[in-house]
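User: Structure tokens for both sequences below?

Assistant:
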Amino acid sequence: MFRSVFFFCIFISVSSKDYYTKEDVDDYVKLLEDAVESSKTYQPATSAHEYKALKSGPPQDAGDYDFIVVGSGSTGSLVASRLSENPDWNVLVLEAGNFGNNITDVTAMSYKAMIMSDYNWGYYSVPQNNTCLGFEENRCPHIRGKGVGGTSLLNALIDIRGNRLDFDNWCAMGNKGWCYNETLPFFLKTEHLHWTDPNAPIDPAYHNSTGLLWVEQPMPRTEHTKVCNIF
């Protein structure tokens, strides 16, 4: 038996409303609870049947484009934005999913509830011999986001880079250009750090505030934040 503990952390901005009533908060809590209940019975798609063409006629002309970006995740959105800076280029972004909602914007819920929803492609690995032994047919779920924002809709709103040792190991194996110090400038180029916590230590050698991918510290800090920091 698996037991899960849900922490409902609700941060409501005062920019659009001077105050929120108890009814407002109750409605939002119910929204979260309904998402959790729905995730318990959700069945991921097992094929691409839902994308079957609805019409059998000739394809329609959608215009001419210099670049077509498939997927509007963190990378696809950033690439499309950079390409569109050239006024002479037409850029098309294709996305199979929807925009995020009030659930995907809640830190913990974006992972716990949304991985069993239409925001997840529902991929699984092929049967494994030495891993995934606790799953049916020894197949592990491979969570990948389907929607504007991609997997950032499902990863609890956590921005994290790969382990330095992994990059250096790839480089040592002959994958030139992938050493950590060689990839770090590109991580910095994409990041736009919004320093929301003045008490958080920030090493300027590893962060940047001029990129297109906005990141920030969760505020205000609560006791739940301290618990999360343990992990």
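Moving on to the next sequence.
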Amino acid sequence: MSTKAIYEATGKKLLNKYLGSTATECRCVSIDADTDWNEL
């Protein structure tokens, strides 16, 4: 098992992918120092 941490947004995307239509779609973004606020 990997000990690499993942972002919460990535985890939610994985859950949505594998749970399919049984889960509500996650609409989130990851923000970092390079994020262009005008593109959001």
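User: Anything stand out in the second?

Assistant: The radius of gyration is 13 Å.
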